Amino acid sequence: MATELEELVDFLSSPSPQVTKAAVDIVRGLTGSDDGLKSLAIYANKLLPSLSRLLNAPKEISEPAAEALVNLSQNYDLAEKMVEIGIVKTSMDILYKPDSSIGHLMVMLLVNLTQHDAGITSLLQTGDEKMQGLYVMKLVRSFCRSSSEAKGRLQWKIIVN
C-alpha cells in the first residue's frame, strides 16, 4: 500500500491540472523544512523527474515546481541526482526561452547545482566537444546584456562557481 508521500508524488503526474497544482504546492511547502526535505528525499528517483517535467507547465504549476527544486538542490545528494537526470540542461533551456516566467528561479537552481563538481561539469558540457562551453558563453553574454541588476548578479554567481 502506497504511503501518503508516494501518492503525493504520483499526483505530480496527474492529467488534471488542478490535482497537479495542489500536489506541487504541497511539495513546495514540504521543501521548506529539513524534515520535509528528508521525507521527500526518499522518493527522489520519482520526485525529481516529475518536478523537472513540470518546469514546462504554465506558470501556476512551473513556479512552485521550480521553487521546490531550488530548495531540494540545497541537499548534496539531491543536487547530484538532479545533475544526473539532466536538470542543468533543462534549466538552461528554460532560462533562455523568451516567454519563460521562471528564469530567475532557474538561475537560482543553477547556482545551487554548480556548487558541486558534477554540476560544473554538466554546465561546462565537457563530454561534448561540439557543445563544450556553450552554456557558459550564453551566461556571460546574458550577464553582459542583462537589464536587471539582480538577475545579472545571480548569473555571475553561476560563472564564479
TrEMBL record:
PROSITE patterns: ARM_REPEAT (PS50176). Keywords: Repeat. This is Protein HGH1 homolog. InterPro entries: ARM-like, ARM-type_fold, Armadillo, Hgh1. ARM repeats lie at residues 46-87. Gene3D superfamilies: Leucine-rich Repeat Variant.
